[in-house]
Specification:
Blueprint (H helix, E strand, L loop, with lengths): L1 E3 L27 E10 L4 E8 L5 H18 L7 E4 L9 H4 L3 E5 L5 H7 L9 E3 L3 E8 L6 E8 H30 L6 H13 L4 E12 L13 E13 L1 H10 L2 E6 L9 H9 L2 H10 L14 H31 L4 E2 L5 E2 L4 H8 L3 E7 L4 E7 L3 H9 L2 H6 L14
Parallel strand pairs: 4-5
Antiparallel strand pairs: 1-2, 2-3, 5-11, 6-7, 7-8, 8-11, 9-10, 12-13, 14-15
Amino acid sequence: SISVQGKYENQSKAEKVQITHGYSKDHRPDLKQVVLSLVVNGPSNIPLWMEPLSGNSSDQKSFHQTIENVNKFKQQLNIEKNFKWIADSALYTKEHLLKENDYLWLTRVPERIQDAKFLTEEPKEALSWTEHEGGYSTVELCSIYGGIKQRWLLVQSDQAYKRKKNTLLRKLDTQEKQLKKSLWHLSNEKFSCALDAEAALAKLSKKNPCFTVKHTVHTIERYAQKGRPSKDQKKEVVGYQIKGVLSRNETHIAKILCRKGRFILATNDLDYTQYPPAKLLEEYKQQQNVEGGFRFLKDPWFMVDSVFLKSPKRIEALMMVMTLCLLVYNIAQYNLREKLRKTNDTLPNQIKKKVQNPTMRWIFQIMEGISVVRIYDSATNTLKTYITNLTDLRKKIIQLFGRAACRIYGLIHENEPQVLGM
């Protein structure tokens, strides 16, 4: 979603894209927005398809419409090769994906599904896990959810589990301190009856399911009149107080910890030989490449994190230009990384570590400061051009991009047969 400035009140209902309020990932619900649907493919993550959508469009509907549009476009180009569609859990719906099921797909199963929730809460020792590289473990299962035969792959990441476990424990420590304060204040309140005291504690406990409170209800007794009571005078019950001891609900916490670092993948590709669990997991992880493209497009360095355009058509055109920029960016980044890999060479990253996978954004920052200086020589009546601030690192980067780049930066001339330093 891309937030836009302006009211956009005079939009025609006939227009496909409506600039309107919707779920804002920019955390700007006060602004109207448009949505960019993007499809990428291949190791360089080339954008194959972009489509502007209305600001209130739902992924659960738009994903399937995008797939249908791309498949129609394929037919126009006479492309017979089938695509395998990889997306997040919004793709997994009974109404669309499992109802049609006419293409190969790989997606994440939403945890709101009861079977998925049960699996993610299952103790680790109760399942037969297969270890993979990178700290991943998997359990392969069969499912006929939605009436479609499919493969489910329960995945656990050790790194994600440790990270999320530490986050949860820190959160529990904070909640425990706050809950002790709330329980102390509650114990000092006076209630008109025991049921009111129990209800107040139940309300507090409901908000904090990771904790349990063992409690007792005490009566508050006082004499009806002030002063020294007589021998036969008895105290009267004037209210009720609740006293409790706080402890952690270890059973509930254990279920939450089981879910940490776990997720379930589903696919209708039933070829276990050609599509083993390791490849299934690897391909799903590549789905993050789309998110990388969105991060590039919405980065403040890209200068379009805020859009100020009058016409919805101009906004759609801008989104197309943004996608073309992403295409160039991704191809340049892929070519650079491939060149470094093939030559077994490296470039320094932001912390001076030698790497073979630098981002183009970092390369752009390295190249900032290069200038073109032109000096007129009156004696010879010629204009000489010089490229300044070409350090050894910048020359190396230019050479990695090939002959054309070297020629632009003056590292070689037309009559030179080879690129310097290659």
